[in-house]
Amino acid sequence: MHQTRKGNKWCFGMKIHVGADVNSGTAHTVTVTSANKADFGELPALLRKEDEVIFGDAGYISDTYKRGARCLGLHWKVNDKRKPRKGNLSSSQRKRNRQQSKIRARVEHLFRILKCQFGYRKVRSRFPQ
């Protein structure tokens, strides 16, 4: 975990990255990093040899990984992100994001289980100075 300060309060944070099967939604790989690490840095650790498609949210956008995935014969299905100076997404991009999000919802269900059933909705630690 990595500590960060918000105002005068120190908190710890972490991220959970999950590789899951597209059809069943079961997790095959789970990694945990500190909250200050970039999402796409964990992408190689989440892939298996039998994977054919990569789904992810906008945090996994990386041109180098996209090119690398295509060289390996993987289909890149990461949601498009709106660029500040280029305006909103086109209707075809929004439609594609919606279709991909329906599949990604199976993995998001795993996070719901962690948060709601195991009680990790808000886990915070504060330490005296």
Automatic annotation (TrEMBL):
Annotated ranges, domain Transposase IS4-like: 4-127
Record-annotated membrane-spanning stretches: none
Species in which this protein is naturally found: Candidatus Endonucleibacter bathymodioli
Protein name: Transposase
Renumbered residue ranges of the record's region Disordered: 81-103
Compositionally biased tracts (Basic residues): 93-103
Any one GO molecular-function label of the UniProt entry: DNA binding
Gene Ontology BP annotations: DNA transposition
Pfam families with a match to the protein in the record: DDE_Tnp_1 (PF01609)
Listed InterPro entries: Transposase_11
